[in-house]
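Record DUF2795 domain-containing protein, 93 aa.
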Amino acid sequence: MTIEFAPFRGEVAARPDGHDQVSWRDEMAGYLGATSFPGRQDELLAALVRAHAPSRLLWRLGALPREVRFGSLTELCDFVDAHSAAPAPREPM
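=>
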């Protein structure tokens, strides 16, 4: 059995504690490719689950309206940023 993971294409910035920090947009881009769009919430969540994306990315899309179809990653991320009341929870390192 072969499991393929989407490549990560974002920049990594060093944090003071020595861990690497990645923009959530860049991380999302590593899991949702161009073939994921256009897509609605359920389709995008399914793509993230298939790609074994971390729960923090699933959490960001969990509150999206189900009837909206997003045409691109930029459109999706802009919508999430505009409608986010609180930052996504951080996973333990």
